[in-house]
């Protein structure tokens, strides 16, 4: 029988060793669920005592998941974006600066030895729209320590990223409530 934890922010016992071999995972495509899949993986990893860093690119709003993730002691989340939606035709220098500063911090997290899993949420869009140069991300994949799991999310994953990854999942939209005029709902989409 599984025991329930007494406290939500209870200290988690860290593993005696890291992954023998961390992989590069990509969640891409037009369908819903890319960030959700990455956050589910992060929670699973944290539940096993692994240390997780999540960098959210092009996001600056308070999404519901942030409230829960803040209660998990071995998950760190940082947002690198404005509170507004970023559209390719309206990218500002502030958007580009936030993404590049975020990438620098995410790269430092990957290379620090402090984290077992690093999630770069929406990095595929950030590279597709040149907020972060593609070559920077490819260099990070090449330089990633062997024992770090790297998870990259977002639509528009470039072919070079797909080829460099160990696992690629494409979310395909078959049907979406937006098509019927149903707006994003708090607690479900944000």
Structure keywords:
alpha/beta; six-stranded parallel beta sheet; single chain; Rossmann fold; 190 residues; disordered N terminus
Protein topology:
Layout: E1 24-28, H1 34-47, E2 52-57, H2 64-69, E3 75-80, H3 93-111, E4 117-121, H4 123-128, H5 134-143, E5 149-153, H6 159-164, E6 167-170
Parallel strand pairs: 1-5, 1-6, 2-3, 2-4, 4-5
CATH architecture of the domain at 39-148: 3-Layer(aba) Sandwich
**String of helices and strands:** EHEHEHEHHEHE
How many β-strands, per DSSP? 6
Alpha carbon gap, first and last residue: 33 Å
Please provide a written account of the structure.
With 190 residues, the protein is of the alpha/beta class. The protein has a domain of 110 residues: 3-Layer(aba) Sandwich (Rossmann fold). The protein is 32% helix and 16% strand. The chain contains six helices and six strands. Strands 3-2-4-5-1-6 form a six-stranded parallel sheet, with helices on both faces. β2, α2 and β3 form a beta-alpha-beta unit. The N and C termini lie far apart (33 Å).
């Amino acid at each position: 029988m599984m025991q329930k934890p007494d406290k939500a922010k209870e200290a988690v016992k860290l593993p005696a060793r890291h992954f023998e071999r961390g992989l590069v995972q990509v969640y891409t495509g037009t369908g819903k669920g890319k960030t959700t899949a990455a956050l589910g993986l992060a929670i699973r990893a944290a539940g096993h005592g692994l240390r997780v860093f999540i960098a959210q690119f092009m996001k600056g709003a308070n999404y519901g998941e942030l409230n829960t993730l803040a209660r998990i002691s071995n998950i760190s989340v940082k947002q690198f974006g404005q509170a507004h939606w970023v559209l390719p035709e309206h990218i500002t220098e502030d958007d580009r600066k936030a993404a590049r500063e975020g990438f620098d911090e995410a790269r430092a997290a990957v290379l620090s030895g402090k984290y077992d899993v690093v999630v770069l949420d929406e990095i595929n869009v950030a590279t597709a729209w040149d907020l972060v140069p593609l070559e920077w991300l490819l260099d990070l994949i090449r330089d990633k320590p062997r024992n770090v799991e790297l998870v990259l999310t977002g639509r528009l994953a470039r072919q070079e990223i797909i080829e460099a990854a160990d696992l690629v999942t494409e979310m395909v939209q078959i049907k979406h409530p937006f098509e019927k005029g149903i707006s994003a709902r708090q607690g479900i989409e944000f």
